[in-house]
Amino acid sequence: MFSIDTKRELQKGNPEAFKEVFRLLYPRLKGYCKLFVPDENEAEDLIQECFITLWEKRNTIDVQKRIESFLFVIIRNKCLNFLKNKRLDSENISTENLQVAELQYLYQLDLAEKEEKSLEEMLIASFQEAVDSLPKKMKAVFVQCKLEGRKQKEVAEEMGISIKMVEKQIAKAKIHIREQLFKKYPAMVVLIAMLLG
């Protein structure tokens, strides 16, 4: 999603690069975080901590790797720590919208060898493969509207198609991507749904 130049600028401490990363990844991180932490304020705190960590560790960013993976690992660890700290107080935390298998898998990944890819890295790589396999026009619509956050009206005008057609292309793309991801990760229903938001 982010160019090597953007990552290099972020490494150097360019606030504009940081703003771009924040703008594009904040909604996905929030959706992911809320799987574990339903409380809006607590989720916001964890996401802010996540971006603070990114800023503090910006000079360690590997420009050949995805910033998304880096941030998802940070937020996953923060969520897991939050759950561990709250686990004795079951009234303050609800994981009913998260399948037990998913939560167990995330804990397992947290304890796995460092050489293993994290769930986020695997999901993001598979997500990218599924997006790349979309028909050209559908991919262009999906990427611009869902990944770059552009307005459907703008994309429709630019591509010379109706807003209805844009909506149809996005809906078809989501079905295709969801099917591809479910084949690989049948137990990750909630995470995949949040990823496709």
What does this 3D model show about the protein?
The chain is mostly helical. Helix content is 72%, strand content 0%.
Q: In summary, what is this structure?
A:
This protein is mainly α. Helices cover 72% and strands 0% of the residues.
Descriptive keywords:
197 residues; mainly alpha; Rna Polymerase Sigma Factor, Chain: A; Arc Repressor Mutant, subunit A; 2 domains
Q: What's the number of domains?
A: 2
Helical fraction equals over 70%
Indicate the low-confidence ranges by residue numbers: 90-101, 107-116
CATH topology group of the largest domain: Rna Polymerase Sigma Factor, Chain: A
CA distance, first residue to last residue = 17 Å
Q: How much beta, percentage-wise? A: under 5%
User: What is the CATH class name of the largest domain?
Assistant: Mainly Alpha
Q: What's the mean pLDDT score?
A: 77
CATH superfamily of the largest domain: RNA polymerase sigma factor, region 2, helix turn helix motif
Order of helices and strands: HHHHHHHHHH
How many strands? 0
Broad structural category: mainly alpha
Assembly level: single chain
Rg over CA atoms, rounded to whole Å, is: 18 Å
| Individual helix count | 10
Q: How would a textbook summarize the main sheet? A: none
The assigned CATH architecture of the largest domain is: Orthogonal Bundle
Q: Which helices and strands occur, and which strands form pairs?
A:
Elements: H1 4-12, H2 15-33, H3 40-56, H4 67-86, H5 100-111, H6 119-132, H7 136-147, H8 152-159, H9 163-184, H10 189-196
Helix pairs in contact: 1-2, 2-3, 2-4, 3-4, 6-9, 7-9, 8-9, 9-10
